[in-house]
Structure prediction request, 214 residues.
Amino acid sequence: MLQPHERPRGARVVVGAGGHAKVVLAALDALGTPAHAVLDDNPARWGTDLLGVPIVGPLAELATWPEVRAVIAIGSNARRYELARAHPAVEWLTVVHPSAIVHGSTTLGAGAMVIWRAVVEPDARIGAHAIVNSGAIVCHDCTVGEAAHVSVTSVMAGNAHVEEGVFLGMNAGVIGGVRVGAWSTVGAGASVVRDVPPRSVAMGVPARVIRTVP
Ligand SMILES: CC(C)(COP(=O)(O)OP(=O)(O)OC[C@H]1O[C@@H](n2cnc3c(N)ncnc32)[C@H](O)[C@@H]1OP(=O)(O)O)[C@@H](O)C(=O)NCCC(=O)NCCS
Prediction:
């Protein structure tokens, strides 16, 4: 196991040691490019491991690893967004699980994650640090903004758009041509049939905005 003081050049580092980090570690394993280390801000976890990968220190350490290649595997969209900005020199790994189907015309931003059996159709654009989670379907010409999260089994029909920081709940759907504004949340199981303004929480079938957030 890697010791806390060891920082090999070009190491692959996973940022965060929560549930989503397990998913990302498993994807890296499946790709044959396992992570060398995990960073997490909870000191109680330092010296332990996540799926066999050592948790070696706090997130602030990222800047001290030479030529590090990292992925921010934290579920909070806002946190991934902030951390990416806090570490502009890091090379962010884009992680596509081998079971996912991603068409070659798709653009995947730095640090984007496409998890088990997700589908990303032609000409979709997935933003930096966005998550397309297990079983989600992002149809042709969709855009998924930076640090957005298309949760497990949710579906975006052709030319649908979720902007920066959007959280699309599990099993939710967005019909074609519709846009969910930046930093909005769409509840699990919702069906979005009209544009959702930025910083709103929408839920239900059809989805209705129930509140806005500052
Ligand atoms: C929509 C959501 C964000 C609302 O969270 P919240 O503001 O904390 O809402 P609450 O749990 O306090 O529920 C408020 C009301 O909305 C209802 N509600 C909550 N989520 C709902 C949903 N997805 N669809 C329909 N109604 C919902 C609750 O039953 C409750 O109704 P009541 O006042 O009649 O009892 C959340 O419930 C949700 O769906 N999150 C998505 C989680 C997810 O998909 N995770 C995937 C991880 S990969």
About this structure: Residues 133, 151-152, 169-170, 185, 187-190, 201, 203-204 surround coenzyme A (CB under 6 Å). The chain has two helices and 25 strands. The CA atoms of residues 154 and 171 lie 4 Å apart.
